[in-house]
Amino acid sequence: MFRTRSQLPPGSSAARPIIVNDYALCTDSTSDYDLLVRGSLAAGHETVWINPNPREIPPTSVSSTSFKFTPKPPENSTKRSLPRLKEWNADVDFGDEVFNLNDLEEFQSTNLNFLFLGNTAKRSYSEVSLGEPPTKRRKLDVASLRNAIPQPHVFPSNSTQKQSSFTPYSRTKPIPIPPHALPLPEPLPYTRRSWVIPVRGTLPWWHATSAVVLLDPNALPEPPDPNTHEEIVWTTGALASFWSFLRLIRDKNTGGSLGLSFNVAHHVSSSNNSQPSYTELSGMGAQPQPFYTQDTGGASSVVSSVRQLAATPLTFLDHIKVYHDAVNSMQVRNLLDAWAFEAGGDKIRLIKTSRLVLLDERSKGIIVL
Hints:
Largest sheet: 7 strands, antiparallel
Strand order of the largest sheet: 3-8-9-5-12-13-4
Shape: elongated
Order of helices and strands: EEHHEEEEEHEEHEEEE
Number of helices: 4
Distance between the termini: 99 Å
Radius of gyration: 50 Å
Structural class: alpha+beta
Number of strands: 13
């Protein structure tokens, strides 16, 4: 509701009346006279400060937490303390700014003459190692190994259902090759698998042992390092002895129905351990395996510094395959581990610390053991 009333203020001689506008949401019972009185009082009131009387609020009417600030708030000082500067041409204080050179400590100079002198310190003769001379660089055989062992290079599996009575291999825990995982499922009765023994080259699976062949036939072969399992060092004599051992256990059915094959590489490089790149061999049936992290859970230590893996197919590597029934895989692995090369009364077990790869019927990796 809106009402307008006008009247001259009391005791005023002004010709302009006081206009009072009243706004209300609903009908107001205030009379017009009261509205004019309020308007005149408001117009004639002087602006002064009024100290209101404090009003105590009963505790029962407080519905929320209340705070009362009684102490005076701290004041932030804005003054800056400027250093006291002396006037120009003022006298100098001898105690603070004037020093006598005789009273100062002697300057310690850095002697850099040794930088301009040659290093004349040499080891005494007694400090020089008088032990064994450094080993000579090994000369590796990079020619074809087709005639390293007598032919034939392929022996089919015997038609026997005899299972191997040899103890299963349990020296280390196998490392599965993805997508396989441990424990492996039980194979079917007629499933065939094969162990790959490297002769020269790097197998295309992580943690698998590689191999080289020495050029000197009178040199001694070397098994892989037990900590790194990196490389088998073959000789032609050790290779022929190992092939004779495989033919013997095949003929006697010691590992069940065994088949053998010696696969000569299709490519021979002029440099040691050099392999064609995977891009050059695209479509050749290679099976490169990506690096993966697997909890071996008690397996022997894995190679500390992973070697550069040449992802080449098996046809470009010299290797031996031992075909067998899948139920005898661990027994055949133990037979290979037990073989030793005899040289001058010493027995060298080249496969004992090696990591071989178990393949399925399609030559795909299953485990490294």
